[in-house]
Amino acid sequence: MANAIRALAMDAVQKADSGHPGMPMGMADAATVLFTRFLKFDAAHPDWPDRDRFVLSAGHGSMLLYALLYLTGYPEMEIEELKNFRQLHSRTAGHPEYGHAPGIETTTGPLGQGIGNAVGMALAERLLNSRCGDAIVDHYTYCVAGDGCLMEGISHEAISLAGHLKLGRLIVLFDDNQISIDGPTSLAVSDDQIERFKASHWHTARVDGHDPEAIALAIENARQVTDRPSLIACRTVIGYGAPSKAGTAATHGSPLGEDEVKGAREKLGWRHQPFEVPKPILANWRAAGARHRTAYEAWNAAAKRLDASARAALTDPIEGKVKAAIAGAVAAVRSDFVKEGAKLATRQSSQKVLEKLLPVVPGLIGGSADLTGSNGTLTKLHTVVKPGDFTGNYIHYGVREHAMAATMNGMALHGGIVPYGGTFLVFTDYCRPSIRLSALMRQRVIYVMTHDSIGLGEDGPTHQPVEHLAALRAIPNLIVMRPADSVECAECWEIALLSKTTPAILALTRQGVPLLRDRPSDENLSAKGAYVLIEPKRARDVTLIGTGSELALAVAAAKALEGEGIAAAVVSMPCSELFEAQSKSYRDEVLSASPRVAVEAATSFGWSKWLGPSGAFVGMQGFGASAPAQHLYKHFGITAEAVAAAACELVSKR
Ligand SMILES: Cc1ncc(C[n+]2csc(CCOP(=O)(O)OP(=O)(O)O)c2C)c(N)n1
């Protein structure tokens, strides 16, 4: 059965003339043991919420996963897909892409991300288990990781977090083949991986990765350890079966070549044509794909006893009832904000919004990378998740931004949870690879990124994001929202929660900002990305566009311009991506043909799209500085006076 995986992998890579045969050939035995003896899944029901999760962190070995999905009989993974490996519109992309075929639990390829995702899935499983009980949620998360995954920094963060939280349902199979692209791993690394995992409180084992019984025993033992995650280091031979290339980096990422493939067939005793799996072997595999049918049916019977919304929430925590409750909660908190009229930092407003949302969105799981008080991510309604106790709904991720983001992806992918997590906006750099994957995988993950500009003040240029808004806006399918006041903040939270297939960044201020949306209204104006906040009484001479904390400067500038006889409109643009998605007529109406001035305490990169060739930008030209915020705004010339002066100049040029 393992040789079927090997043959399919080498044939598919050979036909595509590109890909990675070595890893699937090396891990074929371990994967066969896992899929035929342990993994709880039903190939006919890939969305079974209580299935075990399988994460191929070493995503370059995608043919291992595709072969397993084909052999076990997953829908949509026909042999034709394997023959079309790495071709346009096939389900078998170079690296596994979430959503391309049932059974692909996550997108992997950037090494180490899968381990982070697996930690998130294992955490989601325990969180939901503590809420729903064993009859509904009771499964394992298995992850295959290679030397590369374990060399990546994110693995340290993820392993450490998993060990701390005592995620006993997580089992990592390490493809310990001692080879990576450049050659033997000894060129670059001499860590004792077993000791490293032990130091993070993991259960560990070392096995011959080609001895099925040893692998089975190690997995069986790992499953018995409930208070620690497990690492099983499987000593394997990369490209196992290839007569001259096995055990060498030559099998890692290139086709073996016709002769070597022929030789491997002989060595493995595989006498079948390319892509041909003999009936008895395929039948055994298909039986493995159906061996948990009874368990699936029993689960279904148990789940039928849940009410419809609880059942729906297992996959989508923001189902119908919750959606309606969110609208109510957001309306209530908005009206409180308007009544109080207080000057609040948007991070404080966010905390108040969360306090209203938490009771109505049971699947909301918060956290912060050791900046809880600064991010305002914790409310008095939260309880903290502790090692081995998953009844809480707030996670102290520690100073592990990258793993926080990858873990949140894993939780979102698992289903049943809407994760949000906080750090400073400047440290989106530390989790950017995972943010990119949230966007690529279309996962609802909410990033609460505070201290969003020089407005954070004294911490200085290391902590002051200047290019980050632009860099995040450059990621496709990510909505970057920078609310200007408490009302916009509530609106942005609503948008983030309702955006089922789009992650969101909430860029929030450290410093207080005045309430600008001071009239009661139920319409979520931020949902259009930008809207007219102030329309002058006569035809516009100029349009001032502001985001976040700088919207107030645009408002003050408009007032000053009015005194000089210049009619200035003020447009709030909390989210340029959402604005871009509006009709041209709406966009034209909001921006009008008048000259435009934008103000944002960040670099101008990207703004030309909205300003046109004749517009002006008031913002940052380079890095910030360490000083109280109000001094910095003056020092860098980001003031109402500067906005008004830029507007006057544009108007006088006309
Ligand atoms: C973050 C990241 N860096 C680099 C790469 C390129 N890359 C793909 S596989 C690989 C080597 C991985 O070695 P190992 O995990 O031992 O895989 P094996 O050779 O056993 O297949 C590298 C550097 C990547 N995919 N992701």
Account of the 3D structure:
This protein is of the alpha/beta class. The protein has 26 helices and 18 strands. Strands 8-7-9-10-12-11 form a 6-stranded parallel β-sheet, with helices on both faces. Strands 1-2-3-5-4 form a 5-stranded parallel β-sheet, with helices on both faces. It has a 5-stranded mixed β-sheet with strand order 14-16-15-17-18, with helices on one face. Helix 20 links the parallel strand 11 (479-481) and strand 12 (504-507). It is elongated. The chain starts with a helix and ends with a helix. The mean pLDDT is 98. Bound molecules: thiamine diphosphate. Thiamine diphosphate binds at residues 20, 22-23, 58, 60-61, 109-111, 146-149, 152, 175, 177, 179-181, 238, 252.
Global structural class: alpha/beta
Distance between the termini: 77 Å
Bound molecules: thiamine diphosphate
Helix content: 40-55%
Characterize the main sheet: 6 strands, parallel
Number of strands: 18
Shape: elongated
